[in-house]
Amino acid sequence: MHEILLKHFTAIQPLNKSEIEAIDETMDIKSFSKDTLLLEAGQTSTAVFFVLEGIVRQYYLVDGTEKTSDFFTEGQWVLSTNNVMPGTTVNHFLECCTNCLLAVGNSQKGEALYNQFPDLATVSRKLMNTVFIEQQEKIKAYVTDTPEQRYLKLMTTHPELFQRIPQYQIASYIGVTPESLSRIRKRIAKK
Hints:
This protein is 51% helix and 23% strand. The chain is an alpha+beta fold and 191 residues long.
């Protein structure tokens, strides 16, 4: 499984053997059961996750209702704001929607790697830029797209979610009730 992670890093920037070995030694591969909370609102954590298998969901609690803000699937990084600003608490939850196999690292080990291998800091910066751009696109979609457009984009970008995630979580993600999602799906089926 480390090969998947290393392939991801080397796609960003070529790495030498020493850098690859250091990354390999730093990241732990761990299994998590479905419904495991990786992070809860109010916690601080230095953990970063890379999804090797499974789906991780980010959500907020608003007046006791879960509001899904993101899904992370195979080949994606799961990062929280406190990873960027250590010592801060988060206001969201990270939950395994399926059984998951995750590469787990932390910011302290990352800093040690950057000190030892300065080129890895460049890789990390490029990775963070990619994550930032993805997040900006998601924010833009909530401002400019209709729920139906968000649904269609999700079908295009992550079709695997529709077989693996409950419909109420997909509805929450696109910003509608499950009943509204049902109406959207009927309209799309008629086209």
